[in-house]
């Protein structure tokens, strides 16, 4: 089946080819059967980051955050609400920079929260500071390829 988009499974990180026209039809993982989308942000470690951002073909909006950060905690429900609106056009994910300092360093995260939009495994846009759900959705859509 050619012409599909490679989407990593949120549970097992297996690569799944999904026809672009069927992304909104609740596709499941061919390996473990888990839903590929559930309308919530995905917590990523280094292996998950590489599977979803670098090897997947779906754009990924990553929230770099830490549990001790008040603005990060305040933005968390807003980011989750944005996920419900933006999936399956793009995946929303969170990277806890305290638990995954290598990822924060790898992408030069200097302040949190910081949103980074990755398209084709490359950074396309970055925004520091807490945002509401509507602003997150608007900002992400503005930076997606047409």
TrEMBL record:
<dbReference type="GO" id="GO:0046872">
    <property type="term" value="F:metal ion binding"/>
</dbReference>
<dbReference type="InterPro" id="IPR005746">
    <property type="entry name" value="Thioredoxin"/>
</dbReference>
<dbReference type="Pfam" id="PF00085">
    <property type="entry name" value="Thioredoxin"/>
</dbReference>
<dbReference type="InterPro" id="IPR013766">
    <property type="entry name" value="Thioredoxin_domain"/>
</dbReference>
<comment type="similarity">
    <text>Belongs to the thioredoxin family.</text>
</comment>
<keyword id="KW-1015">Disulfide bond</keyword>
<keyword id="KW-0676">Redox-active center</keyword>
<dbReference type="Pfam" id="PF21352">
    <property type="entry name" value="Zn_ribbon_Thio2"/>
</dbReference>
<dbReference type="InterPro" id="IPR036249">
    <property type="entry name" value="Thioredoxin-like_sf"/>
</dbReference>
<keyword id="KW-0813">Transport</keyword>
<feature type="domain" description="Thioredoxin">
    <location>
        <begin position="20"/>
        <end position="145"/>
    </location>
</feature>
<dbReference type="InterPro" id="IPR049299">
    <property type="entry name" value="Thio2_N"/>
</dbReference>
<dbReference type="GO" id="GO:0015035">
    <property type="term" value="F:protein-disulfide reductase activity"/>
</dbReference>
<dbReference type="GO" id="GO:0045454">
    <property type="term" value="P:cell redox homeostasis"/>
</dbReference>
<dbReference type="GO" id="GO:0005829">
    <property type="term" value="C:cytosol"/>
</dbReference>
<protein>
    <recommendedName>
        <fullName>Thioredoxin</fullName>
    </recommendedName>
</protein>
<dbReference type="InterPro" id="IPR017937">
    <property type="entry name" value="Thioredoxin_CS"/>
</dbReference>
<keyword id="KW-0249">Electron transport</keyword>
<keyword id="KW-0479">Metal-binding</keyword>
